[in-house]
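Each record in this resource describes a single protein on a pair of labelled lines. An example record follows, reproduced without changes.
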Amino acid sequence: MSDTQSEEEHDKLGTLKEYEGERNEAGERHGGGRAVLASGDIYQGQYKNGKRHGKGTYHFKNSSRYVGDYQQNLKHGEGIFYYPDGSRYEGSWVKDMREGHGVYTYPNGDTYEGEWLNHMRHGQGVYHYTTTGSQYRGSWVDGKMELGGEYIHSNHRYKGNFSNNNPCGSGKFVFDIGCEQHGEYQQIQQDTDDLEYAEPATAVKWTPVCIKPIAP
């Protein structure tokens, strides 16, 4: 199971097997408790009127785990989701969705820190590539690099606009030796829809226009 499926939906796959904990006058789970589902999932934490509400830990049968805040059975507030592939997300949740500020660590060690919306990178954020040490800092739209951004390498950086995960249009390379090269990127047709955690594909052509010294 991924975190795109709520625990409430997952509960329907198996009835409650056992529960130990507090209840209210109506007999509903209320307060602290531990529930074991027939599916093999386990939740331990706070309840309110029969629903997960407050701090809690949910262990999934597939070894996923969520530790954090709940509201009315939904991940809501601050929490960490650990995935079976070794990746994890730590940050803000809104109604079971990654939303707000958070840090995602991918299986290959890459990290993204920034804004999220509807489970996707959206807004301002920084993506760090472990293999090369490069970084992208800038805008994201629906999980992709879009609009203004900066791609930073060890001894130079590129600053300009991005589209579909690649630089696009006018921009400039700024080199540590004290000069900058202005030019334009033209995109080459290439499908990058499946890009999740990898260096941007070579799908653009750079045409230099001029070289200038960096203004003091």
